[in-house]
Amino acid sequence: MSYPRLFGSVQRVLSRTALQNTRSSTIKGTSLLAAVSRRALSASVVTDHYPTRKSVSGLYPRVDPWFWEDKNGVRPTGPITDAQLKEYDEKGYFVMPNFFSQEEIQPVIDAIYKHKNAIESSLKDDEDPTLTPEISYSTEPGTKRLRSQFGLHRQMPELNDILKHKRIIQYVRQILADDVYIHQDLVNFHTAFTGIGHNWHSDFEFFHAEDGMPNMRAMFCSIMLTKNTPDRGATMVIPGTHKIFVGNPTETPKNQLGTSSKYKIEAGETDQKLFTDLANKYGIEYLVGDAGSVVFCDINVLHGNHTNMSPWDRLNLLPVYNSISNKVGKPFSAPWERRPEYIATRNKENITPIPYQ
Ligand SMILES: O=C(O)CCC(=O)C(=O)O
Ligand SMILES: [Fe+2]
């Protein structure tokens, strides 16, 4: 069909200009963008600034800032250093080596492996579980090895010592300038010899399309519970991609919940042509570190990972912190009203500010 193709190429031209615009202006306080997005947030009609999964692909300018201001128009101070802020501004993330000590993370590691062993030993030979409204975990395809487990922080108090650690929340609040809650928490096991990885995507693209997250006032952290190295399939990122939005062409299928977490992503996978241009421009980086290191990452940075071919597990905890003001609504591009609570927090009693002092 010629219409989508033409539309797609016009969008690409428009977006190239947008990309140049965002790149050439060194956005620090981002007050203009903040003003635009404050207007967007207060509008009674929810505007879709980030079209995706509507048959065409395209690059769009980011209308949201990545450093937010509080209600009084002030950017908070906090523990993040100027060098880290500069890195976040340019790349969309920074890694804090040894944020947690081994003593702090060990109880979490023990609790997670206990849970993993219990599930794996309960599985029958012909079972190949994936996410359903009732099942919040999936195994690596065709194996009994746990791949991902969502929503554990509501069952496992040990996890909250880390996920709701005051120091983490202070970092997140310095960037988002608001009270935050956990929109999603996930353990990725990425087991030795087995973990198959995740195709390129932006987490925001998922939350926007599937949960109705309107704005990019959210961050994810990757808390390394083992060493993260390239041979173990460390997360890879395209630095700088927090500054643009890549809309994907594949419409969200009804069975997305079960397939996207178990197998490599399809709907939500970044368009390969656009991805190639971005990778040529910005390169690809591995996020590496020792156990206890934490990545602080803008919610829109393109990332993925590959198979863990090493003989060692790569165990990561991935909380998504969303601003209380960035209320999720009707999904922007999905054939459902809402996803289960374990994968996308929506119930009022779970949307309470995490203390930070
Ligand atoms: O575990 C990783 O390296 C990345 C996983 C990921 O991107 C996700 O679960 O959204
Ligand atoms: Fe992701």
From TrEMBL:
Task: State the source organism's domain of life.
Answer: Eukaryota
- Report the protein name in the record: Ectoine hydroxylase-like 033
One GO MF term: metal ion binding
Which cofactors are required for activity? Fe cation
Q: What's the encoding gene here?
A: LOC100369088
Question: What Pfam families does this protein map onto?
Answer: PhyH
| Organism this protein belongs to | Saccoglossus kowalevskii
